[in-house]
Amino acid sequence: MDYRQLGRSGLTVPVLTLGTGTFSGKGGLAAWGSTDAAEATRLVDVCLEHGLMFDSADIYSGGASEEILGAAIKGRRDKVLISTKATFRSGKEPNEVGSSRFHLTRAVEGALRRLGTDHIDLFQLHGYDAKTPPEEVLSTLDALIRAGKIGYIGVSNFSGWHLMKALATADRYGLPRYVANQTYYSLVGRDYEWELMPLGLDQGVGAVVWSPLGWGRLTGRIRRGKPLPEISRRNVKGSNDMGPPADDEYVFKVVDALDEVAEETRKSVPQVALNWLLQRPTVATVIIGARNEQQLKDNLGAVGWALTPEQIKKLDKASALTMPYPYWHQRQFVERNPFPTRV
Prior knowledge:
Blueprint: E1 3-5, E2 12-14, E3 16-19, H1 37-50, E4 53-55, H2 64-72, E5 82-86, H3 101-115, E6 120-125, H4 134-146, E7 150-156, H5 160-173, E8 180-184, H6 196-203, E9 206-210, H7 237-242, H8 248-265, H9 269-278, E10 283-288, H10 293-300, H11 309-319, H12 327-330
Parallel strand pairs: 3-4, 3-10, 4-5, 5-6, 6-7, 7-8, 8-9, 9-10
Antiparallel strand pairs: 1-2
Helix pairs in contact: 1-2, 1-10, 2-3, 3-4, 8-9, 8-11
């Protein structure tokens, strides 16, 4: 396994992380997969053999995902890095939602209990809460860090100004800074590059990439003129509707380029799509999902090799889209606004 620094922090993380959204698969997450406790434990075993991190959230199957992960790592906590998330509604009461001191404190306590641990290595806000002042959010996280309950902090699904305002607040009051941004990024979803990537480079925030295969579009099983696979989140309306949009013809164009590169490299389409992400600036770790051991082992094949510059250019060209203003305007002046590069 390859390892990288998480943003401008002292924490080293593996470049691949197992997402545990498939563990249990209750409710609306069934389309992602329904991995039972026995299969989940086997996946955890494989991940530990290869040095992966684990990512979860309090809302995944109503907390059952964290419980299954906690049971699977019992007795092996010292060998594991765990990240989890909270912000979205976790109950029916008025304060069981958001990033208030009330909710975050209870969310962390609940996650610790379900995971069967005394600390969370990386705790992330699952979404932006416009109703809670950033000073309250950060002072709460500071207290949890000082208590030893969480190690590092991050955000997810923030806009650039949301994140920058939070970082400025941290600097102003001497509070902990976010070092991770769990963000959607894929060959068919490159919005992250417009603002969040330059911000991440400038401010030392590492990308923790979710849905790197474009919400099931880059698995290699979706092809022009062919029906959707029977087992796929793309074939479940509720799951498909909640995912990031992408025009079908655009997806097919990208898949065509992936097919060419896959043939050149003798790798699978998902492996090529994941490896492309691992070459991008700010990317610290990529969250992979797996319904079973076979899928997991195929995704592990994305590490240990690198696409050539020519292959990256081919994929970049196939997946390029016109950016919104002011980014398309700025890109016309590359002398002063160059594309970010890995450092």
